[in-house]
Design the sequence.
C-alpha cells in the first residue's frame, strides 16, 4: 500500500510539473474555455485589484450585501463602507433572504474543458440565494486534463492511510441556475429559472513572481491539502505559518527582512514526508535561508545546508533531550516553542503524534 501511495505521489508530482512549466499557455486556453461557457473572466494581480473588480460588479450604489467563503478577503471588505455590507457565512446559512454577492474560492480548474471545481464549501447550500457569484481561482491551481483531477482529489482527501470522501463537490461548467418563485394572480405558484451572474477571477497574488525562480517554483505544485500544516510542530504552537506558507512568503524581499523563516521552522522534515505532491519543503526553506543570510547577515559564509544536514537524522532518534537543546540554542527567542517542548512527554517531532492530536482536535 505504501509503495502504491508513493507511486501515486510521484505521478501527481509529474502532473503538477507539466502544468507549472507551461502555465502561461494553459492559462490562456483555460480563459477562452471558461468564457465560452458564459462566465466572465478577469485577471487579478493582488487584493487591491480583486477589491476593485468585485465592487465594479455591484448593481447598487449602496448596501450591497456580500459574503466571503474564501481565504482571500481584501482588506477593504474588512472595514465599514456605505457601498457594501459584509455578512458572515453563519448569517447567510441561517437566513432565508437572498444576498447580492457571494465570493468563493475554487480548488481547481480543468484546462481541457474550462470547468471549475469547488470542494467542501461552507456555503454549499446557499447558491440559490445568490444573485452574483464571484469565484477566485489561484493561477497555479489548474490541471490539464480531467483524468489528472481524479488522482489529485484522491491525494487531497487521503490521510492517515485512509480515504475520506469529500462532503460536497461542485463542478461548474456554466452559470448556475437560480430557481425563484414567480408572482401570479392565481393561487397556483409558479417558478422561473435564471442563471446566476458568475465571475471568475484568475488570481496571481505573487505566483508569477515565484514562477520566475527555477528552484522555488516547485512550491507552486501545492494543492492546498493542509497536510504540512497538520504535522508542523511550530505551527501547532504559533498558528502563524504552515511550511508551504513560509516558503511562498519568503520568495518576496519584504518578508525576507523580517527573518520570519528562521523563527518559524525547526527543519524537522515532517512536511516532506506527508506532502502528497512531493514538494521538498525543507530543501526549499534551506535555499531561502541561504539567500536571506547572504543578503541580510554579516555571517555570509555560513553553509546552512551543511549546518542542518544532521537535522532530519536527529528527528528519527526521538531523543527529547537532544531536541530540546537544539531548539533552545537556535530558537531561543521563540518562548512558546520552548515552553511547549518542556511540557511534552511524547517525542516533539513525531509525525504520528502530531497527526493523532490534529485528528482528536
Sequence:
Amino acid at each position: 500500500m505504501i509503495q502504491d501511495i508513493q507511486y501515486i505521489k510521484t505521478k501527481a508530482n509529474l502532473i503538477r510539473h507539466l502544468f507549472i512549466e507551461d502555465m502561461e499557455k494553459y492559462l490562456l486556453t483555460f480563459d477562452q474555455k471558461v468564457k465560452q461557457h458564459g462566465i466572465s473572466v478577469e485577471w487579478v494581480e493582488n487584493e487591491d485589484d480583486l477589491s476593485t473588480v468585485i465592487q465594479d460588479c455591484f448593481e447598487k450604489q449602496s448596501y450591497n450585501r456580500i459574503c466571503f467563503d474564501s481565504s482571500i478577503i481584501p482588506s477593504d471588505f474588512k472595514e465599514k463602507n456605505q457601498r457594501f455590507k459584509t455578512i458572515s457565512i453563519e448569517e447567510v446559512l441561517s437566513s432565508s433572504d437572498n444576498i447580492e454577492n457571494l465570493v468563493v474560492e475554487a480548488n481547481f480548474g480543468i484546462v481541457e474543458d474550462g470547468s471549475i471545481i469547488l470542494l467542501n464549501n461552507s456555503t454549499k447550500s446557499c447558491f440559490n440565494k445568490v444573485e452574483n457569484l464571484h469565484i477566485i481561482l489561484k493561477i497555479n491551481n489548474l490541471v490539464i486534463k480531467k483524468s489528472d483531477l481524479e488522482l489529485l482529489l484522491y491525494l487531497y482527501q487521503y490521510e492517515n492511510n485512509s480515504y475520506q470522501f469529500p462532503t460536497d463537490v461542485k463542478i461548474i461548467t456554466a452559470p448556475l441556475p437560480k430557481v425563484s418563485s414567480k408572482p401570479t394572480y392565481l393561487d397556483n405558484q409558479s417558478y422561473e429559472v435564471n442563471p446566476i451572474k458568475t465571475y471568475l477571477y484568475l488570481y496571481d497574488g505573487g505566483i508569477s513572481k515565484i514562477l520566475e525562480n527555477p528552484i522555488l517554483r516547485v512550491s507552486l505544485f501545492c494543492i492546498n491539502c493542509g497536510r504540512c500544516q497538520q504535522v508542523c510542530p511550530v505551527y501547532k504552537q504559533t498558528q502563524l505559518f504552515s511550511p508551504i506558507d513560509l516558503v511562498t512568503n519568503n520568495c518576496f524581499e519584504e518578508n525576507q527582512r523580517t527573518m520570519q523563516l528562521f523563527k518559524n521552522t525547526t527543519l524537522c522534515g515532517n512536511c516532506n514526508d506527508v506532502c502528497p505532491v512531493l514538494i521538498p519543503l525543507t530543501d526549499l526553506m534551506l535555499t531561502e535561508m541561504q539567500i536571506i543570510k547572504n543578503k541580510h547577515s554579516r555571517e555570509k559564509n555560513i553553509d546552512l545546508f551543511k549546518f542542518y544536514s544532521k537535522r532530519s537524522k536527529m528527528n528519527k532518534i526521538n531523543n527529547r533531550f537532544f531536541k530540546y537543546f537544539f531548539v533552545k540554542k537556535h530558537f531561543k527567542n521563540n518562548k512558546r516553542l520552548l515552553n511547549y517542548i518542556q511540557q511534552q512527554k511524547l517525542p516533539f517531532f513525531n509525525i504520528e503524534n502530531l497527526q493523532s492530536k490534529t485528528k482528536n482536535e
About this structure: The longest helix spans residues 2-21. Confidence is low (pLDDT under 50) at residues 298-302.
